[in-house]
Structures are given as C-alpha cells and as structure tokens.
Amino acid sequence: MWTVDVSKVVTADQKAAEARAALQSQYSAAIQAHLDGKARERQYDGIQTAITYRGDPNPQFAAEGEALFAWRSAVWTYSTAELVKVLAGDRPQPSVEDFMAELPAFEWPAL
Questions:
Q1: Helices then strands (H, E): number in the chain?
Q2: Which contacts qualify for 86-92: CB closer than 8 Å, 24 or more apart?
Q3: Nearest residue to 72 (alpha-carbon basis) of 43, 45, 37
Q4: Which of 56, 83, 78 is nearest to 67 (CA)?
C-alpha cells in the first residue's frame, strides 16, 4: 500500500514562494555587485565602505561618499518597485542584464 508523507508534499503556493525568493535573490545579488563594482572604481572596498565617507574632512571622499549614498538609495528604490511589479505580473520579467541597464546611472562628482 502507498502512503503519502505529508511533510514532503510541496504545494503550488510553496513553489511560487520559492520562485519569488529565488528571483529576488538573483536580482539582489546582481544589484549589490553593481553597486560594489562602482565603488571599487575609486578603490573603496565596496559601497558600504564608500558611504561611510559622507562628511569626511577630505572633500573628495566626502563628495564621493555622498554621491554613492544617494545613488545607492535611488537604485534600490527603483529596483524594489520594479521587482514588485514583476512578482505581481504587472510587467514582464526582464533578464538580469536588461534590468541592470534600467537602473539609475551614476556619475562621479567633479571637484
């Protein structure tokens, strides 16, 4: 006789939740790498280190930290709103590469 192990049953809702989590993780990792890569262009360890220079006595570091801080916020604000639309079915799911091209651009401050 065949017995179902209910603890191993995966529902459609569980599969959908796993797919959403995987999607968010994939895009989040790419976005974070993009942010960190931009900060590394100026020899910062990453975006988190760079933004600690806001208010620094060195005017260049302070300006770069402030600019990266504002850009990071703009990127996450945009990406969060757009991924909500994807998850809700309100917009087609773009490739990670296409989505990255949609993100707000960054320009280093001129001093």
A1: 4, 0
A2: 86/23, 87/20, 87/23, 87/24
A3: 37
A4: 56
pTM for the full model?
0.84
Q: How confident is the model at residue 1 (pLDDT cuts 50, 70, 90)?
A: low
Distance between CA 50 and CA 62 in Å, rounded? Answer: 9
**And the tokens for 71?**
């850009």
State pLDDT tens for residues 24-67.
899 999 999 999 999 999 999 999 999 999 999 999 999 999 99
Sequence-ordered list of residues with C-beta below 8 angstroms from that of 109, at least 6 positions apart, any chain: 63, 64, 66, 67
Are the C-beta atoms of residues 75 and 63 closer than 8 Å to each other?
no
